[in-house]
Amino acid sequence: MPQRPMVLGQPSLPYAMTTQERNNLRSLADYTTLQSLPELWPLAAQRFAQVVAVQDPYAQVTLTYPQLHQQIQQFACGLQALGVQSGERVALFADNSARWLIADQGMMMAGAVNVVRSAQAEYSELLFILANSGSTALAVEDHATLYRLRDGLLALKFVVLLSDETPPDIGLNVLNFTQLMNLGCEQPLHPVAQDQETLATLIYTSGTTGQPKGVRLTHGNLLHQVTSFGTVLQPKPGSRVLSILPTWHSYERSVEYFLFSQGCTQVYTNLRAIKKDLRHYRPQFMVAVPRLWESIYAGVQKQFREQPPRKQRLIYTLLALSERFIRARRLVQGLDLKNLQPTVLQKVQAVLQTLALGPIHALADRLVYRSVREATGGAICHVVSGGGSLAEHLELFFEIVSIEILVGYGLTETAPVLTVRRPWRNLRGTAGQPLPGTELQIVDLQTRQRLPYGSQGLVLARGPQVMRGYYQNPGATATILDAEGWLDTGDLGWLTPEQDLVLTGRAKDTIVLTNGENIEPQPLEDACLRSPFIDQIMVVGQDQRALGALIVPNLEALQTWAKTQDLTSPSVRDLLRRELNREVQNRPGYRPDDRIGPLRLLPEPFTQENGLLTQTLKVRRSVVAERYRDLIAQMFTES
Asked: Which pTM was predicted?
């Protein structure tokens, strides 16, 4: 386990910017005087007049900043022509595209509060959101979304298609995108009074359990992200950004707003095209989630396995030597989370090791790692990864191949970024340091007393990005937000003296065995995913004597393995049990209770379509546990 320095007197002051962070902000376009997010667009249009703002190759859309501002204003005028009033809720059920951005900001510019969700969400969930939010109008992706929802839309004033499909005659006032934009040409924009306390958007959390809740985010919440993220990233006008995550989600959305504020060019892609687009557009910035890096890692490992045996041995030998180099370099740089306070002797030994292994690592880079970078675009300067922690083996691999990943952390309820690593302090294994103005506390789960540095407890957060509560749900708000503005994140973690946040699990995900031991499943799952034979895994075992696992196997890797086996070889289940034992025992801080006993193979992967993954690709543990309840019970009964 990492050494945790025990320092009493953990502060409760907001994070203070360093000199470097202040200088970073001074070098960027300043938006600190803005009172509402739509005020950004006329300034950006003036500052970046010749720069392409959005490029959507699959919709054949390219807009400069002045053109984007003009279309946002035109959309707003169209809504006002249809009678949308300040503070009215207007829903937006659609996915990534330039038109999503135009609709989103057009709604805010018109004074509306937009209510966003994916067009792919379940029918009952979308209708619940419409009713709960009190939305009076709706913008939808296309005909298919409209027809899926039409029986629940009769009370709406109007519906806008973001496509140019012909509006159907279904007893509703339906306009397509072009018709609304034409309507907006016929009248000027009526300015609306908005300030930083004005409600800007409702984002309904899909979460992993229960009915979705509407997170109330103000213009001030969103602007905090715009004016703070420059402490971390330094984009230039025209820097390319590749967008793949759901735009309606607060993580992608807030980082996009910041990058647009600095004149970046956003290119839209999708899961089918991302590998090709990485190579073609060679983005300087990208926002991603751990599942994407797992996929890229699995693809690279597959290519390694397909090499001739001699080349495979060379690759894995070089990787092992590079791992030793990277671990020594971390210690030299003061960025080794497992040894935050090295002795002088340890530092000297690490320096000697980097000198000895540096030339080998450089050779490996020329022979192997450069091609890996080229396959992922080659020119990515910084990737911000959120939506979950990054497994240790992924951290190490991408550091070896020199792809810089800055892990961040936050919640929809915090607009969302609370912490993020800095390029000059990329302390692997952490979620980074707070954004300016953000306070973190680690408290005891039972007593809520503040804990010293290095002690694990519940993570509380307070700052300008924290929501104003759940919409029409004071009971749920009271369970997460106290009178002093502290938000209960539901996450477990600890802080270093430099305020790097180390996350260790979810309070509600903790598995309690019958011997009373508490187990955090996420670190174990991250370790097991190192195995090439395991595609997805969920550790279970609440109120059992030992842990078990539900496994989605990598069928392709298993088929390749099976071709090399004879009749005396172990079964697939024995192979996977051996893989689990090795990976779990090799992780730092292993203890006997971490051992995974019984396991079962699942016939289908966890996906959004079957309801087992959230829209941000997190496993919905309670849903998986319920779906496979009988299988889990049988697994433990037989064991």
From this structure: 0.85
